[in-house]
Amino acid sequence: MNKNSTVIDFAPESVPMRRTTWFIYLSAYVILLAFVGDNALNGDEGIMAEGIRLTSGGIDIFSPQCWWQPDDRSLLWFCRLRMLPALIFGSSELICRLFSILASIGVLWCTMSLTGDFFNRRSGACAAWMLIGSYGFIYWGRFAGNFMTLAFWVLFTTLCLRNACDRFWWRTVIFTLIFSGTMWWGMNYLLFLPGIWLITWSDGYGVLLRKQWFFAVIAAAVIAIAAGCWLVGFAGVPWAEYPARFFRQFKASFLESCHIAIWPGTGGAGNFYRSPVNFLRLLLPWTLPALAAAAGMIRKWKELSYDHRRLLAGTLFMLICTGIFPGRRWQYQLSLLPFFIMICAGVTAECVGVDSWSRLADRIMWWSFCVLGSLAVAVIVTWPLWQMIFGFSPPLWIMFGMPVLGLASLAFLVFDTGGGSAVERVSGMNGPWSGYILSGVCLMTACFVVGVSSLDRYRSGRPFWKHCGVLVRHLPAHEVIYFGSFPDAKQLYYLELPTPCPIVSDPGELAAILPQIHSGEALLMIKRADIEAVSAALDNAGWSMEHRKPLAVEAGAINFYNDEFADDSKFIICRIRRGSDR
Known about the structure:
Oligomer: single chain
Radius of gyration: 27 Å
Helix content: 55-70%
């Protein structure tokens, strides 16, 4: 039902389905929160986590310590807001990912609302389940970054514009979303704005440009700038520094994103239109039905309603806009995912009249999930093979969790017996394909929640850097030396150093800082491949390195050769001393 229409829809499928809605949100929370605090941070997550740790420790966000690289390319403005839970509960993997989880729930709510508006409530439930079971939602919703926050901003802007009212405060909210999104995400947000306007355009849309719209714009600009000032931490700063700091924030957030989006200086023209191809990964496992639905709607363009035409045209327009620049990162296309899910859900729930290609795609997906569900159930019989082939015991969650979810996926396929079936009553979906959609949700959960999280314990980075943090925490900063390239933000986060340690990139720089160590002893973090070069430089400077007795060794994830020095890219931490005694 279109909320801008004066026609009231009393169809049964438009009635709110409270039990189904609660079940959808409960499933989303379980998928997003299960094991999310057990997974170690990866490289990109470390950027956000280190910024949260430093800002929650009282360090100004404009301090050089808050930059994960020596240049000015990544202002972590959102850390100012993300640090609030860290001040209460402490910094951890769960806290760092908390805002992405909340933003994912917001994206789910906006997707259900918009789909119900364009089609009906049953299609909204279908879109919700397809979104929950998508790779973009499961993986990036459990990721410590701003990508899902940007997606929520885009979806919430669309929802507000779709329901625009002739009220001053409503216009202020809309323009605040637009101004703040442009200021904080720059080109990454602006590329979606033309498609949003196309999707939400209606006869009543002129309310934004009626009387007093100018005052709403001014109020929205003041709110957006004030929020930006608070997020970058202007408290206690002299008034004279406000313009310079605000411009630095604007430059880092808007101008830098424009530069990266248009021409980053790397990759060149070979990256053109690579983003639409990468976007297909975000749609998994619904890539085939989504493409079939979009193609079917294009084929029957003249038979579509005015609402459905604008939804399809705006979605395709956003896809073109976000893929036209060579510097796009495919994670920023998460904002596109819900719109394609809406189209796919509308066609799958038979609300559009496109059935030729869509039915074939759904049938292929049904049989594919039958095969994948059977393989998930058969995982338990591979128990003896793990020790034989990989040399370690399998995680119990994989051995028992994946077969259970595999059985659940097969059960949804078997008991989906048509209209009024138990599967449809539980899920809230309407159509012959409810079972395979829930089956896909189970299989994606088995893969990315149970499987990935269970295998994460074999990653050696987190325990090694935490142990290093215990060793160096009580030492003066100049007595802890990091040798090599600039350290990964993830490594700095787990080290939890109160002040930055010296970072040297070659043996010459290492020899230059040794006279500053008056105690005659220090700890050195070094890759195994650099041991010989550093040992020679230390000998020339009259120092020695105890690399044969390291204090900590980063082991490989799976040690096939039982050789702790087999991987030269791994780190060790050892003691260096003035003198030749080893």
